[in-house]
Inverse folding.
């Protein structure tokens, strides 16, 4: 069951994001690309009913994916795979996400030692995740 529609914004307020189908939970990734982009731990939630307004800049981070940020303040907004309607949004943009539980965590064997996430949620190492979701080019997001 999804949470009610939510609205968020970047640090400077120039970009506004509305999500009509938030899942009410967060996923975490510790792959190298996500750690470089987020600075430590990449947390996100997927949604397809998303409206974004403002100065958004998209960066192609791999042959199949791109990441978006505010063109004014640089706040990270979302990432998405080419041809996929769903976007993986940054929970910190939305006040409502503060109480959402972690549902899954991937690349757990690559987590920074101080960024391990406690709790009873699904976990997968790099090998376990790649076995279920093989990438033809070998990139990790």
């Amino acid at each position: 069951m999804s949470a009610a529609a939510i609205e968020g914004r970047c640090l400077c307020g120039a970009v506004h994001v509305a999500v009509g189908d938030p899942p009410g939970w967060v996923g975490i990734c510790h792959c190298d690309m996500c750690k470089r982009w987020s600075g430590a731990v990449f947390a996100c939630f997927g949604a397809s009913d998303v409206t974004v307004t403002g100065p958004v800049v998209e960066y192609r981070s791999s042959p199949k994916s791109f990441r978006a940020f505010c063109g004014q303040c640089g706040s990270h907004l979302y990432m998405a795979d080419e041809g996929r309607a769903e976007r993986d949004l940054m929970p910190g943009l939305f006040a409502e996400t503060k109480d959402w539980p972690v549902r899954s965590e991937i690349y757990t064997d690559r987590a920074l030692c101080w960024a391990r996430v406690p709790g009873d949620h699904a976990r997968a190492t790099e090998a376990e995740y790649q076995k279920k979701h093989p990438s033809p080019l070998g990139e990790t997001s």
In short: The chain is about 10% helix and 35% strand. The longest helix spans residues 32-38.
